[in-house]
Design brief:
This protein has 290 residues and is an alpha+beta fold. It folds into 2 domains: 4-129 and 279-288, Aminopeptidase; 137-250, Gcn5-related N-acetyltransferase (GNAT) (Aminopeptidase, 3-Layer(aba) Sandwich), CATH 3.40.630.30. It is built from 9 helices and 12 strands. It has helices at residues 13-30, 37-45, 87-98, 112-120, 155-165, 170-173, 177-184, 233-247, 262-270; strands spanning 4-8, 48-55, 58-66, 72-78, 103-107, 123-134, 147-148, 194-198, 204-213, 216-224, 252-258, 274-284. Strand 10 (216-224), helix 8 (233-247) and strand 11 (252-258) form a beta-alpha-beta unit. It is globular. It catalyses: 1D-myo-inositol 2-(L-cysteinylamino)-2-deoxy-alpha-D-glucopyranoside + acetyl-CoA = mycothiol + CoA + H(+). Belongs to the acetyltransferase family. MshD subfamily.
C-alpha cells in the first residue's frame, strides 16, 4: 500500500498516542528527542501544524512546522523501523512545498542520514546548538542563594525577567503565560527545581530552571537580568542548580547552548560539562522553492 500524508490531530487519542510512541522510539534510537518542547506545546495549542505519513494504517513519520510568517520552522522524524525508504524526503518535500520553499529545519543530533537528506534537498546549515553533558554531577563552590519558584505568584515577574534576559533569543525570550502554563502542567515540572535569585530589593535578578526526566537533570534555562550581569551570578546559579541535582541524587546532567555563545559555553565547560552532540538548523536556499 502506498504511503499517505495526513494531518496530525493532537486532540485525537490515536494520533496523540502514535506521536508519543514515535518520540520514544526515536529518542531511544538517536539519543535525543526529535521535537523541542516548544514545538509540542505549539502543536497542542494549534500554533503549529503536524503532518503524519502513514503506511498500512501505521504512522511511520511526523513533521511539525510553524504556520504563518515565513520562514517556517520545522522538525521531522521517521520511525527507526521505517528508515531508508525515502519517507524523510517525502516529509521534507511536503514541508518545503507548504512553506513556499522558505523553511528552517532542525536536525537533532546531526546524524549522517540527516546531513545527507539536507544536502540532497539543497539545504544549508545556518545554526549550531551544542548539547553538553556532565557525569557524575558535582557542584563547585560558590552557589548563589536562591529560592523555589512560586507558581502563580511569580509568573508575571519571571516572564518579564525572561524577556529581558533573552531579548536576543526569541525562542526563549518570547515565552508567554500560556507557554509557561503548558510547562507547569508537564509531569516533569517541580517548582523546587526552578531556582530564583533575588536582589537586595527582593526583585528577581536571575533564575536556574531544571528539568529532571529519565534520570537526567537538564539545565532547561539559565537567565540573568542585564542589570546583574558581570557579577558572577550566572556561574553561581549553575552551581546552585548542580547542588539541587546532587540533593536529588541525580548523577547526570545536560544542557543545550548556542555554539556561538562563547561566554556561556566557556562557563559550562569550566564546571565540567563536555560535548555530547550537536543540533543543526538548516535553511532552504532560494532555489529550493517550487
Amino acid at each position: 500500500m502506498p504511503d499517505l500524508l495526513v494531518p496530525l490531530d493532537p486532540t485525537s487519542a490515536e494520533h496523540a498516542n502514535s506521536l508519543a510512541l514515535l518520540i520514544g522510539e526515536a529518542t531511544r534510537a538517536d539519543g535525543q528527542p526529535p521535537f523541542s518542547d516548544q514545538s509540542l506545546v505549539d502543536l497542542r495549542a494549534g500554533a503549529r501544524a503536524g503532518t503524519a505519513i502513514e503506511i498500512d494504517g501505521e504512522i511511520a513519520g511526523i513533521s511539525i512546522m510553524t504556520m504563518g510568517a515565513a520562514p517556517a520552522e520545522a522538525e521531522l522524524v521517521v520511525s527507526p523501523t521505517h528508515r531508508r525508504r525515502g519517507l524523510g524526503a517525502r516529509l521534507l518535500a511536503d514541508v518545503l512545498a507548504r512553506s513556499g520553499g522558505r523553511a528552517l529545519i532542525w536536525a537533532h543530533g546531526d546524524h549522517p542520514d540527516a546531513r545527507s537528506l539536507a544536502a540532497r534537498a539543497g539545504l544549508e546549515p545556518v545554526r549550531e546548538l551544542l548539547q553538553l553533558r556532565l557525569a557524575p554531577v558535582r557542584a563547585p563552590d560558590g552557589a548563589a542563594e536562591a529560592r523555589a519558584f512560586r507558581p502563580g505568584a511569580d509568573d508575571a515577574e519571571w516572564l518579564a525577567l525572561n524577556a529581558v534576559a533573552f531579548a536576543d533569543h526569541a525562542e526563549q525570550g518570547d515565552l508567554t503565560q500560556a507557554d509557561l502554563d503548558a510547562r507547569k502542567a508537564e509531569p516533569w515540572f517541580d517548582p523546587a527545581d526552578f531556582l530564583i535569585a533575588s536582589g537586595d530589593d527582593g526583585g528577581m535578578i536571575g533564575f536556574c530552571w531544571l528539568k529532571v526526566e529519565g534520570g537526567i537533570g537538564e539545565f532547561y534555562a539559565v537567565g540573568v537580568s542585564p542589570a546583574a550581569q558581570g557579577q558572577g551570578l550566572g556561574r553561581g546559579l549553575v552551581s546552585a542548580g548542580l547542588e539541587r541535582l546532587e540533593a536529588r541524587g541525580i548523577r547526570e546532567s545536560n544542557l543545550y547552548v548556542e555554539a556561538e555563545n562563547t561566554a556561556a559555553v566557556t562557563l559550562y565547560r569550566s564546571v565540567g560539562f563536555v560535548d555530547h552532540s550537536i543540533d543543526i538548523q538548516y535553511s532552504s536556499r532560494p532555489s529550493s522553492a517550487s
